[in-house]
């Protein structure tokens, strides 16, 4: 019988792989590793970091764990009360060839099975039976789930109902627009955080992050929606992409006082994240049932960012 199965391949799973030296098998439902630390590669256009934008951390152990990274230098602003103000936060960790590499590099020597979605979990005498969506099965002594809260809960509720029901955890959506312009917008900005805006949350000029792998004739922006806009549109976004793209770009151009002509748009698309951010205020870092040998961790237990995924997963490793 196999020893430990880890479900997911984001920062949390990478942390477990880094600290736990046992024989580990990683199962990922998507076609590649990284989870929400995700980069879209568009042929002849370039790369969009349409998940995690950058990491802010003072934690040296975490930075060592990240390995190859750089600090995004540039002109950062906050849009507040109809005005652009300087954003003094300068410590923005990225990978200049796409943020997905921040996680992908951590899985180089790991045993990863992609396109393997765990559908259900059964406890047999002293092992778990894992049923995958492709109708295959595996047995493991220990299972660790690192999926976003709602997915982790659905997979484990027959074991964890009592624990999670009293905690009232949740995660919030995000809509992310990726757009490539034929001509520069001439904004001379690297990123803008929009405060209390109905439509926009954050915008990054990808050309100011990526040192290579970008079509130098184009200017690429990744524009994240506000929470309010995502809640309103997440369930129908696939059917409404043209109007959502129009609305987000209109809002962007009005706020930044620029004109965006239709023929300047070379490429555009929207990605919807149903479970993007965590808003949990609880102090628990993870779930571990030592008798059952079931563990759950993720950024969403507390913190809701890449560093908290690391801290929470490390905590689980210490318990195991
Ligand atoms: C749009 C956006 C912007 C963000 N910006 C930032 C930022 O600027 N800075 C920051 O620090 N954080 C940011 N975050 C949050 C950050 O991405 C997360 O905190 C971090 O990536 C969480 O890692 P994780 O491993 O806990 O979860 P995830 O990355 O979600 O990993 C979970 C993995 O489990 C897999 N999975 C789920 N269910 C199954 C199943 N049944 N079977 C198999 N596999 C499964 C998923 O496919 C996924 O790969 C952002 C997130 C989003 C969505």
Structure description:
- The protein has 320 residues and is α/β, with parallel strands linked by helices.
- The protein has 2 domains: 2-32 and 114-169 and 282-319, FAD/NAD(P)-binding domain, CATH 3.50.50; 39-100 and 171-278, Polyamine Oxidase, Chain A, domain 2 (Alpha-Beta Complex).
- It has helices at residues 11-19, 60-66, 100-104, 149-165, 227-233, 241-256, 306-319; strands at residues 2-7, 24-27, 39-42, 46-49, 70-71, 76-80, 83-86, 93-94, 111-113, 118-124, 127-132, 137-145, 171-181, 191-194, 200-205, 219-225, 265-278, 287-289, 294-296.
- Strands 1, 2, 9, 10, 11, 12, 18 and 19 form an 8-stranded mixed β-sheet that branches. Strands 7-6-14-15-16-13-17 form a 7-stranded mixed β-sheet. The chain has a two-stranded antiparallel ribbon with strand order 3-4.
- Strand 14 and strand 15 (200-205) form a beta hairpin.
- The protein starts with a strand and ends with a helix.
- Bound molecules: flavin-adenine dinucleotide.
- Residues 7-13, 27-30, 35-37, 51-55, 117-118, 146-148, 151, 174, 176, 224, 273, 276, 298-299, 304-306, 309 line the site of flavin-adenine dinucleotide (FAD).
What gross morphology would you assign?
elongated
Number of strands: 19
Instruction: Characterize the main sheet.
Output: 8 strands, mixed
> Mind telling me the CATH class of the largest domain?
Alpha Beta
């Amino acid at each position: 019988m196999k020893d430990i199965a880890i479900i997911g391949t984001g920062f949390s799973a990478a942390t477990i792989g880094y600290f736990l030296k046992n024989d580990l098998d990683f199962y990922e439902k998507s076609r590649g590793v990284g989870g929400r630390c995700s980069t879209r590669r568009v042929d002849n256009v370039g790369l969009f970091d349409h998940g995690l934008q950058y990491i802010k951390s003072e934690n040296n152990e975490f930075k060592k764990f990240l390995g190859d990274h750089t600090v995004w230098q540039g002109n950062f602003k906050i849009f507040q009360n109809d005005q652009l103000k300087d954003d003094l936060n300068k410590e923005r960790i990225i990978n200049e060839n796409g943020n997905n590499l921040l996680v992908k590099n951590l899985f180089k020597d790991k045993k990863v099975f992609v396109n393997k979605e765990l559908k259900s979990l059964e406890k047999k005498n002293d092992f778990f039976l894992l049923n995958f969506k492709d109708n295959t099965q595996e047995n493991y002594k220990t299972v660790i789930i690192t999926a976003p809260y709602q997915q982790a809960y659905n997979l484990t509720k027959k074991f964890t109902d009592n624990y999670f029901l009293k905690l009232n955890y949740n995660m919030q959506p995000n809509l992310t627009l990726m757009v490539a312009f034929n001509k520069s917008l001439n904004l001379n900005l690297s990123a803008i955080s929009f405060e209390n805006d109905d439509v926009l949350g954050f915008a990054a000029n990808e050309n100011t992050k990526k040192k290579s792998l970008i079509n130098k004739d184009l200017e690429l922006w990744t524009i994240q929606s506000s929470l309010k806009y995502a809640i309103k549109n997440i369930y129908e976004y696939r059917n409404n992409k043209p109007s959502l793209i129009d609305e987000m770009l209109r809002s962007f151009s009005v706020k930044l006082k620029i004109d965006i002509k239709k023929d300047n748009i070379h490429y555009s698309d929207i990605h919807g994240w149903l479970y993007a951010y965590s808003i949990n205020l609880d102090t628990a870092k993870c779930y571990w049932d030592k008798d059952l040998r079931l563990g759950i961790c993720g950024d969403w237990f507390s913190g809701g960012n890449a560093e908290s995924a690391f801290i929470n997963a490390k905590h689980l490793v210490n318990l195991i």
